[in-house]
Amino acid sequence: MEEALLLNQSLVTHFHLKGLSVNQKVQISVFAIFLIFYVLILIGNILIVITIIYDHQLHTPMYFFLSNLSFIDICHSTVTIPKMLVDTWSEKKLISFDACVTQMFFLHLFACTEIFLLTVMAYDRYVAICKPLQYMTVMNWKVCVLLAVAVWSGGTIHSIALTSLTIKLPYCGPDEIDNFFCDVPQMIKLACTDTHIIEILVISNSGLISVVCFVVLVVSYAVILVSLRQQISEGRQKALSTCAAHLTVVTLFLGHCVFIYSRPSTSIPEDKVVSVFFTVVTPLLNPIIYTLRNEDMKNALNKLMGKKER
């Protein structure tokens, strides 16, 4: 009884985020770089969404999922980067317990939804390339909408489950999170109780999802590439380019998830570097890969810009 009362009296109400560096000059450089990246993320992904909505030729399952991916990347980066930019000018870098939990919830919501969406996009490319005659029957709009609903529902359920596990733990100090945003592994480390079972559940949840989806995606693209080798057509190069783009995004994004969530909650110096790729670099890859490497998108962008100029 006395121990419970002591915990209640000393509950943590705020956390201190260590950020990327304590050096003021480094922080100013980080602020400038992150701000540029964030602006580019917003411009690039918003432009993709607008272009897909505007151009009726892009009203296909592939670009429907791509617009969802761009929307997720906008939200995903917005969960962490603005707070990080503000914290570069603050010495304490405080975040309230509720804000920390909220950030963690939306971080996992968008991250898990993106993992599921990338898996669905791989399936879409598999059907398009390996079963082209059945493509419009298999990937009709009803199926696409149902898949989108399933993807978002899966991300929501995952995030609720993970956040519930973390929020129930007692936090009575220390209160320093060794990163520039709140995440499950860092929060679990601060709990003043034994967290071995929780860590196993986190690895079973996030780690298993990441590893299974990564294996499924790699196998899917391997099958696609084998199928493309057997095809002699004008669209072969275009299909190869599309698959290479998808595989690049998948490897960088899921690589982070496997690295962070498939091991116990221990901090190592590489965590922050990987987190930067996860929250800043990967969301910027979609506008670069899907516009500069995609002729359909470039043509649609040119049409959109041409119409605006007129």
Automatic annotation (TrEMBL):
GO CC annotations on file: plasma membrane
Protein name: Olfactory receptor
Keyword DNA damage attached: no
Keywords: Cell membrane, G-protein coupled receptor, Membrane, Olfaction, Receptor, Sensory transduction, Transducer, Transmembrane, Transmembrane helix
Organism superkingdom: Eukaryota
Cell location: Cell membrane; Membrane
Segments forming domain G-protein coupled receptors family 1 profile: 44-290
Membrane topology label: Multi-pass membrane protein
Principal subcellular localization: membrane
Organism field: Loxodonta africana
Gene: OR4E1
GO function term, MF aspect, one: olfactory receptor activity
Family from the record: Belongs to the G-protein coupled receptor 1 family.
Pfam families: 7tm_4
Membrane spanning residue stretches: 28-54, 63-85, 105-123, 143-161, 208-228, 240-261, 273-292
Gene3D superfamilies: Rhodopsin 7-helix transmembrane proteins
PANTHER family to which the protein is assigned, alphabetical: OLFACTORY RECEPTOR
